[in-house]
Design goal:
Elements (H helix, E strand, L loop, with lengths): L28 H19 L14 H16 L4 H25 L13 H15 L2 H16 L3 H31 L1 H16 L6 H8 L3 H26 L2 H9 L4 H34 L8 H10 L3 H34 L8 H21 L1 H4 L6 H20 L1 H25 L2 H16 L1 H17 L2 H31 L1 H16 L2 H12 L3 H25 L3 H9 L4 H12 L1 H21 L7 H11 L4 H30 L1
Helix pairs in contact: 1-18, 2-28, 3-6, 3-9, 4-5, 4-14, 5-13, 6-7, 6-9, 6-11, 7-9, 8-9, 9-11, 10-11, 11-13, 12-13, 12-22, 13-16, 13-22, 16-22, 17-20, 18-19, 18-28, 19-28, 20-21, 20-23, 20-26, 20-28, 21-23, 22-23, 23-26, 24-25, 26-28, 27-28
Length: about 675
């Protein structure tokens, strides 16, 4: 058989010989990562135990002593230094006055009175009326039942203290968050300036806000409220800016063409059309504030958080569970009320209920009834002090203790086996690799991984973070926290992929599981520690399991959305080509959802880091213990502050590497 060869056309140019075909394979990124890990492991075996920068629990570095000196100097000059006298002290006074006012209103005895200005009956009436006014009657019933249950638990005053701090923090946060969010929505320049700060604030674990603020505002409700409002403000700013930017351009142009001024466009077009999304931002702010208020118990914030902290420190599972349940109930009520408020108008438009015309008169009657309840709770002791001795709370605590005893007696073998397998087989070897390697070897490996996974800028950020971590003097504790965080994140991603793929492939499974995941994200971090403390005792594994359960919902939802967004035509083409279910998942859906996988890893790491640090209360040790010890032992304040800085550096390093990897995956 002859093969016809087409002659090239003569162009008058000298033809260059064809380049030889490349036969070598391009080195993939996973191969480079594997090579880095192999080199690290080999050098670890040679250099183990050298230059590890280990520091005993009671030892301090020069930086820690300097922080202690600064703290002492600030305390000595707090009432004479102009910066404190006319700025920080004034802020603390204003916040203290606001918190005291709200507490005297609903939780603490007011001046000259043995009870608050508004007792339990009035608070329950207000909760029901407001829930009905902004939502619907179902939400109102939930609010009344929820607040009544708080009293039946015997935790009425603690619950009202928590509510008072939350309301105060949210009120102040929204005062500047909503205007700033509107400004960022209207101005690209402001949005570019604000976004990095919001990213940084949302990356920082909750613990980190506490130590520096106590330096300026002392330990107490003021610092707790300020820490809470700083932590809770970013969601409102970000979501408000997004809401303003999401208003259709054609609508704004129509308003401009009719001669509307910028102020009229804002007040008559942008804000009304953004109202639902802005209310969702308020919802997120309230949830963040409630989570932070409970953790702020570490700096003497009153309320349910203090009850949980004291119970965790004494390993009193029953009391911790009862208080944790109260936090969950309050979170559910606040979440449902604000969620109903965001969709009330749309629900009313869709509703054909004939009683809608009677809503306004009924609201007037409800306001009158609420006023009567407030008057009664202000006047009569029986309506001010919640009746009973908290029998429900005693039953809950007793039941939790009984379940704990039963679990320890009957499930101890299983739980201990799970703990030992993960601890011995995964956590201990990885922690040993991090803590017993020379610090410069670990730093070089982290920087190399940052460059390979996230790119040059991520590598530079990692190098800066590593250098600063060495400077904090808590390198060994940082590596212990890093080990727990990475192990927990691996477990989170395993759960996230399993359930996320299942949800992404089945609409029925998604409808069944997603409400549970949404409810899990409402609960503050403290609550997750309680059941696992009962199962696994006060160990670092308890913190890891709690971190996995805390972070898994967000990873599952992100991965499920990523799998669902894979084009159906691509899946159908793979099916028609004869691929089975496993091949479709591993060869089509997961590779095409790699951007979602990387984003889930990013969010999982941040959630896990915040929870692992909180686990310092139940034996996790490392940076979480350093921070807590800094609050309780004055001589360790500087070390606790340095540990807080180390947590920030770990969070920034994780965030920058995974965000850069997500951008690469989506490119």
């Amino acid at each position: 058989m002859t093969v016809a060869v087409e002659k090239p056309e003569k162009t008058g140019a000298v033809e260059e010989p064809a380049a030889p075909a490349r036969t070598g394979r391009r080195i993939s990124r996973p191969m480079v990562v594997a090579a880095i890990l192999v080199v690290w492991l080999v050098l670890f075996l040679v250099l183990r135990g050298k230059q590890t920068l280990t520091l005993a629990a009671a030892d301090l570095t020069d930086l820690h002593r300097w922080f202690n000196d600064v703290n002492d100097s600030v305390g000595a000059n707090r009432n004479s230094n102009p910066l404190f006298l006319y700025f920080f002290n004034e802020i603390r006074l204003v916040i203290d006055s606001l918190v005291t006012f709200v507490q005297e209103l609903i939780s603490q005895p007011a001046a000259g009175r043995p009870v608050p200005q508004i007792g339990w009956l009035g608070v329950v009436g207000i909760a029901g009326y407001v829930s009905w006014a902004v939502g619907n009657w179902r939400v109102a019933l939930l609010a009344v039942a929820g607040f009544t249950f708080l009293g039946l638990q015997g935790l009425w005053q603690e619950s009202m203290d928590t509510l008072a701090l939350t309301v105060s923090a949210v009120f102040v946060a929204l005062l500047f968050a909503i205007p700033l969010g509107v400004w960022a929505g209207l101005s690209d320049r402001v949005n570019r300036i604000v976004t990095p700060f919001l990213d940084f604030m949302q990356t920082m674990p909750t613990f980190v806000y506490l130590a520096p603020l106590t330096l300026f505002f002392l330990i107490g409700p003021a610092s707790a409220t300020i820490a809470t409002l700083i932590y809770a403000a970013p969601p409102a700013i970000r979501i408000t800016a997004h809401a303003i930017r999401s208003v259709p351009t054609t609508t704004v142009e129509a308003a401009d063409s009719m001669g509307a001024t910028r102020r009229q466009t804002l007040t008559k077009v942008l804000l009304p059309m953004s109202k639902r999304t802005v209310v969702m931002g308020v919802n997120q702010t309230i949830m963040a504030a409630l989570a932070m208020v409970t953790i702020a118990a570490l700096i003497d914030a009153p309320g349910l958080g203090k009850t949980v902290v004291q119970a965790l420190q004494s390993l009193d599972v029953g009391t911790a569970f009862n208080a944790g349940l109260a936090i969950v109930v309050m979170a559910i009520v606040l979440d449902r009320v604000t969620t109903a408020a965001s969709g009330r108008e749309e629900a009313a438009r869709r509703s054909k209920n004939r009683f809608q015309a009677w809503r306004r008169p009924l609201l007037g009657v409800g306001a009158a009834v609420t006023a009567v309840l407030i008057f009664m709770s202000h006047t009569y002791v029986w309506a001010a002090e919640f009746p009973g001795e908290g029998g429900v709370g005693s039953a809950v605590s007793s039941g939790a203790d009984n379940v704990t005893t039963w679990a320890q007696d009957n499930l101890g073998g299983l739980t201990n086996a799970i703990r030992d397998v993960i601890t011995t087989g995964l956590l201990n070897p990885f922690q040993t690799l991090l803590t017993d390697s020379p610090w410069w070897l670990v730093g070089a490996a982290l920087i190399a991984l940052g460059v390979v996974v996230g790119g040059l800028r991520a590598g530079i950020t990692t190098a800066v973070c590593v250098g600063l971590l060495v400077g904090t003097g808590v390198w060994s504790d940082s590596m212990t926290t890093l080990a727990s965080t990475v192990v927990a994140t691996v477990l989170v991603m395993l759960l996230g992929i399993c359930f996320g793929v299942w949800m992404g492939r089945s609409a029925l499974v998604d409808r069944l599981i997603r409400p549970t995941l949404d409810a899990a994200q409402v609960m503050p971090p403290f609550v997750y520690l309680v059941p696992f403390l009962a199962l696994f005792g006060a160990t670092r594994f308890t913190a890891i399991v709690a971190a996995v359960v805390y972070a898994a919902p967000v990873a599952m939802k992100i991965i499920a959305d990523g799998v669902r967004n894979v084009p159906a035509t691509t899946v159908e083409a793979a099916t028609s080509a004869g691929c089975n279910t496993w091949q479709i998942i591993t060869k089509v859906q997961l590779p095409m959802a790699r951007s979602a996988l990387t984003l889930a890893t990013n969010q999982g790491l941040i959630y896990v880091l915040s929870m692992v640090v909180v686990g310092g209360l139940v034996g996790a040790g490392a940076l979480g213990y350093d921070v807590v010890a800094g609050f309780s032992q004055g001589q360790l304040y500087g070390k606790g502050l340095a540990a807080g800085l180390a947590i920030v550096l770990l969070g920034v390093m994780f965030d920058r590497i995974t965000q850069a990897a997500a951008r690469r995956a989506g490119a």
